[in-house]
Amino acid sequence: MNPREVVRVALRALARNKLRTILTMLGIIIGVAAVICTVAIGQGASEQVQQQIASLGTNVIMVFSGSVNTSGVRMGSGATKTLTADDAMAVLAHVPGVVAVSPMLGSSVQAVNGNQNWLTRTNGASQDFPQIRNWPVVSGSFFSQRDVDMATNVCVIGKTVQSQLFGDQDPVGQMIRVQNLPFRILGVLQEKGQSSNGQDQDDIMFMPYTTVQKKISGISWIQMMMVATASQDVNPSVQSGISALLRQRHHLRTGEDDDFIIRNPSEMAQTAAATATTMTLLLGTVGAVSLVVGGIGIMNIMLVSVTERTREIGVRMAVGATEANVKWQFLSEALVLSSLGGIIGIIVGMGFSALISNSLGWPTLVSKLSIVVAVVFSALVGVSFGFYPAVKAAQLNPIEALRYE
Question: For residue 98, which of 85, 106, 89, 108 has the smallest C-alpha distance?
Answer without folding.
Answer: 89
